[in-house]
């Protein structure tokens, strides 16, 4: 199939707050609308976290269900739920939304420091999540914050817990993960299994923008959104998730790339019913 650029929008995340950017969508309605706006701007995957009534990150099944129903009523965007959750959550908490059988879910491929905190993902934990995803027919996005995470994913592939087509989320510049630079991105890509798909995820204003160009240069996919970066440019806050998607679309088109729609994602990643 002809290569098109898949754009994921990570619209809320677990760490970003309204203090960081007042335009952050938090309620199920707000998230639904922001997802729809991102979709209309050119995003074909929604990376979904939800918040409780106090605006704090939650993996509560009911909130996920309500939010996913609103998103699906509004548009045809492919939903990728997080199983990373937030710092300090147990694995049982984190994997709750898998019961809703989303088309894609993120699968963290290793433990990382996260600022002064850490996110724990031991090999048995990763195996467990991968096994559940396989049972439900959910395509994992293999989130790697470090080279060793890619090596860990190879162990799971060898064990038959992850099957092709593989989709990696290469997270660069998270506080504790590998830094963003073009050389590092290129090196990580070289270590992926053959014919893998990958999305470059740059955390913070500069890395997020550079990752758009990195993805285009190396033939990967793009992720933008207020989870990863709250700025549009240095010192200027983004007005919305859609604004960040619009720029990614504009840049990709400048390079002559075509933007993928959800059907392309479903076919390429061999999601359920395809
Ligand atoms: Zn996330």
From TrEMBL:
Keywords: Metal-binding, Transferase, Zinc
InterPro entries linked: Aldolase_TIM (IPR013785), BKACE (IPR008567)
Domain of life from the UniProt record: Bacteria
Gene Ontology molecular function, alphabetical: 3-keto-5-aminohexanoate cleavage activity; metal ion binding
Cofactor: Zn(2+)
Stored Pfam families: BKACE
Assigned EC number: 2.-.-.-
PANTHER family: 3-KETO-5-AMINOHEXANOATE CLEAVAGE ENZYME, 3-KETO-5-AMINOHEXANOATE CLEAVAGE ENZYME-RELATED
Designated name of the protein: 3-keto-5-aminohexanoate cleavage enzyme
Organism of derivation: Candidatus Scalindua rubra
Lineage: Bacteria, Pseudomonadati, Planctomycetota, Candidatus Brocadiia, Candidatus Brocadiales
